[in-house]
Design goal:
Blueprint lengths: L2 H12 L8 H17 L14 H4 L1 H18 L3 H14 L3 H13 L3 H13 L7 H15 L2 E9 L4 E4 L2 E3 L8 E3 L1 E8 L6 E7 L3 E8 L11 E2 L2 E2 L7 H8 L6 H22 L19
Parallel strand pairs: 1-7
Antiparallel strand pairs: 1-4, 2-3, 2-5, 5-6, 8-9
């Protein structure tokens, strides 16, 4: 059994029943069987045996085949991160619609549906190693499945031109026209100069269209006030506590004048008692009662 057949059989047996992937066999064929066939040396009529060609001896093409084989082995045992690494290397060596399709299959399995959607669309539009009619049909089917897990988001922003971040990643203004997100929980952050920033957690439960409205309120700051010549900057009289605080003199304190009043009143009463006429002093000895009194 060939490597392609073994990989297809292994993957088919390990896949969950609710996510059938009939395109796996075609994927394996497009990635491994076709490239190897293109590297096979031609047969010379005079010898009847294949001769080594420049294509077969090209180390870059040999590395491409090795990368694809390793990627398929990892894919077969559901090591999708490792498979993606090998398929990326193969795509660097020989970019084509078929390597894009292989990368799309990996991203689908990793549940990176927006990436899978983009890669499938690129594979369908690619002109290098174009897909066969069967491969194209299966890729379109995979695209329809992927779109069930992707939501198209339309943002209504006020003010227009506000900055957008999704899951702490900045979104370019040009991307807002075709903004898509995977199903799941996302944090939207909208900000603009002079406006209160809004952060909202959104649970995207299914694919389809989603409209979100963000109306940022202006930032309101209290006007600064100061006391100038007993008046506030807005022309009104300051409160008593502000006026006293601005004066800073002890003469402006109520308790000073209350205490002073008590001291003065006490002095007056004491003087009266000390120097006033009591009317009851006894006469001086020998006096008949008509003498002067102190």
């Amino acid at each position: 059994m060939s490597l392609g057949s073994r990989c297809a059989t292994a993957v088919s047996s390990k896949r969950h029943a609710t996510r059938p992937t009939p395109w796996i066999t075609t994927l394996v064929t497009s990635l491994i069987v076709t490239p190897i066939a293109t590297l096979a040396p031609p047969v010379r009529a005079d010898q009847g045996k294949p001769q080594a060609t420049e294509a077969a001896a090209d180390p870059k093409r040999a590395e491409y085949v090795t990368a694809v084989e390793n990627g398929l082995r990892e894919f077969a045992v559901e090591h999708y991160l490792e498979a993606r690494s090998w398929f990326l290397r193969a795509h660097e060596l020989r970019p084509s619609a078929r390597t894009l399709r292989g990368l799309a299959a990996v991203e689908f399995e990793l549940r990176n549906y927006t990436k899978a959607k983009r890669l499938i669309e690129e594979a369908l539009a690619a002109q290098d190693d174009t897909l066969t009619p069967a491969q194209r049909s299966e890729s379109e089917e995979l695209l329809r499945k992927t779109e069930a897990f992707v939501a198209r988001v339309h943002l209504v922003l006020s003010p227009k031109g506000a900055a957008v971040r999704i899951d702490d990643i900045a979104v370019e203004p040009a991307e807002l026209e075709k903004l898509i997100v995977d199903v799941g929980r996302h944090v939207f952050e909208i900000s603009a100069q002079g406006r209160v920033t809004q952060r909202r957690q959104i649970d995207v439960e299914h694919g389809g269209a989603l409209q979100l409205t963000f109306d940022l309120t202006p930032v309101v700051s209290a006007p600064a006030t100061s006391v100038v010549a007993g008046r506030l900057s807005n022309g009104s009289a300051p409160p008593r506590d502000m006026a006293a605080e601005d004066d800073g003199s002890i003469l402006s304190e109520w308790w000073f004048w209350a205490t002073a009043g008590l001291v003065i009143a006490g002095g007056v009463v004491g003087g009266f008692l000390l120097f006033g006429d009591s009317g009851s002093e006894p006469p001086i000895n020998g006096d008949d009662g008509k003498a002067f009194r102190l």
